[in-house]
């Protein structure tokens, strides 16, 4: 029965205090949209949850016009992300994708960091952020490092974070021209997500949701053979939302529509 | 009548409505259920020592602790163990219950109960179970001659929970000589009657009494089973049912109540048992069905025979499925003229969660094959599917099944209403295309494409339209009682045991009482069902409440008027015949005869009195033919012609500003409800779907429902029922399916068991109310609630078949399944 166990709570507005607390049995907690169900089902058994919601350093959305990037705190909710003028201006596809995550309750409490760090394959943000070339800033009490999204998310429900590390911010270059995100979503989570950045010279294709983790390829524009190889070689999941054949067919149809090229 | 606001709106919207899950009793303890982790296995050992030693634990209860309590329940087949005894028959079956001071302590300790199993072959689908020598139930639980209604369960031990048949003429011979024979086989998925409030029960056993608060749709049925199991008189068992957060049939009959009661008996404390969605899905589901329909047509496309096979996957325990199967058979061939018929049904035990009642009660399962079959036949015969139905539909007054109530509906008129609404929708859509140039107006994010919303003019979209019609022998047993207590100010408390689970019955029944008693609806109070105080009610299901309970309320109001007349006559010292009711007031006949002549009963009060049941006083009052006695005993009428208000009569008789007069109404198999069913519930819908060729996604863009209810006591509530039922049908058609992968469900949660959402509702909806006054209920009413679900899965399947070019055989029509159909169509 999904009765949550009694949990200890560490709550602080100070990032260093939070970092000192996080570790084995001490689970970082923000929106709870992943942690609470996982704990209810007994998949996660933290003794203490470490509340990140009061740490201002994790809640910022800052634009760096010089660098041409936006830095987003890990505890920013999907809703704030989708509504924020800076994000809407410089990262409109990310804002729009965030506005379609889950449902209204999930968007109001669920966070960017939670979404990435649970590494649920059937999600949108990882795919869009990988397509955008975002980097993840990771901290622990003893150090800091910066990872690409594909270095952070290493498999289904698997990240490269150590037990004492948390994701603090993601830094996202301004959206390039020719970007789009499309998803097939028949259930609560997406079945297939495709982020494209298309220019006269290049096709950047990132596929998510149906793969263990978001997968990206950069092709010369018009390289239909390369595209076909990429699509044909993707390992697509077999689950309630459909068999791999189906997902590959949907993916091909979308790419055909979007790129005018048979994949 | 009028669409008055729901009487429960305020408390529900403000969160103050009390549901069973809110119930508490002093000294209450909490249960956690230890559930089987095998689909089929012998229990070799249960080690509970560790759990018993855990903090806060009061008792750990297993089957062997139940002493001389009745161990099993089941109103048709008493096969259902409170706690698994000797063996488990489905994954998720309760094996033990841990009672502790807090829910956390109970949940923690439940993980410390160690159960050892010896595995048996798991028969997780009906075909496997029926072909297997392995028995799910090794004994029969049925006594000779045992019956529930018309259902006489078989004393079988061959994995058959029930078998039944309906036949007339010679279907085999007629099919052999038919000009055309069309065969359809469909699979109806295992579905869960998702309700926002899951099952829960609070029980307090004390020597000589048992008090239960639960989510039971049928408190009186639960009382009967508990009384038997605990060897108590009916009066010693009190079952209370506050608001229920959704029923849909899934909460009919007995569910968690015996478990809570047994835990209370063992622990010596009131015990509460709750379920999460996963446990609820393992508690009850709807019967899955494999149905084959063969229909023979003559040269004029008239049906000459139908031969139908129905096979249910009933799960580990029979529950109500034998009755569901019987009804499914009755609902499988019509509402068409069928001169030769054979329907055979079997409900198979399987090692899966037990199936029982679900909105539609066997009709959606059968109609999926039966109505899809009509569309396939139309195609084969080269006839428009609506025209084929028109030719074959039964007419008002026709016999559907010999000995049952003749058809009390005009189905051709219903069909015409659907077609005209669909045509109007199509015209609106076409006009919109011209205005917007094919651009879909919806969607605020131009830069994100989420599949789903699309438009007629888009490439890669195919469309299909279909109608479907069903008729169900609804209303259940016409056994109902109601009481109206009129207070000294003329206001009224209505007592019924019909449960309010969101359908709005308290509002509709209040409206009937208010109309009968000529009081404003605000002057009528209705409370929850409570077997200690509210009168007998058979069930709350089968769309019966407005019709059957409504008649009981009318009869109670008639009885109340009768009693008021007697009190008024007593006070006045006249004979009761000399007091008449007019305009909601009591008059001396002499006075009234001066103001109302003969049958010219045109006053508001007479009209508001309704045309009642025709029994006793109701006839005299309702028909407007007032008494004609010339007696003129002044005390009753102070002011000639104005009479006395009922409250005045009460106060006068008691001689104080106090007192109460009670009316009792009874419905049984007599009068308006002498012939069963009490009414035929019609389901008549039309849909138009679009299919995205690339993704296989189906969007139901148009929906038309016809609420053929005879008379709508509250039109908004009827439309709400129709829209809700149709939407639930869309869930079955497109998404809902309990998926067993081996022994357990892969999707026992609402993330992966997808129910319809607001955005799934069709873009254009028309809800037609057909009010032809042709029902046996109050003012000519018939029931609503299930009807609009029944034809929806079939209609969607047929519409998708038309769009795709291949007839579906299996629901739900998920995107990958529709994509597969599209692949087939290309070959």
Could you describe the 3D structure shown?
The complex is a heterodimer of chains A (263) and B (827). Chain A is α+β, with helices and mostly antiparallel strands and 263 residues long. Chain A folds into three domains: 8-51, 2-Layer Sandwich (Uridine Diphospho-n-acetylenolpyruvylglucosamine Reductase, domain 2), CATH 3.30.43; 56-173, Uridine Diphospho-n-acetylenolpyruvylglucosamine Reductase, domain 3; 179-259, Enolase-like, domain 1 (2-Layer Sandwich). Chain A contains eleven helices and 14 strands. Chain A starts with 7 loop residues before the first strand and ends with a helix. In chain B, the strands form nine sheets. In chain B, strands 3-7-1-14-11-12-13-25 form an eight-stranded mixed β-sheet. Chain B has a five-stranded mixed β-sheet with strand order 9-18-17-16-10, with helices on both faces. The longest helix of chain B is centred in the C-terminal third of the chain and has 28 residues, at 545-572. The model of chain B is unreliable at 437-447, 452-457 and 596-639 (pLDDT under 50). Chain A binds chain B through residues 1-3, 5-6, 92-93, 96-97, 99-100, 180-189, 191, 240-243, 246, 249-250, 253-254, 257, and chain B through 32-33, 103-104, 106-108, 110, 274-276, 278-279, 445, 447-452, 694-697, 735, 739, 746-747, 750-752, 754, 814-816, 819-820. Strand 11 of chain A pairs parallel with strand 20 (448-450) of chain B.
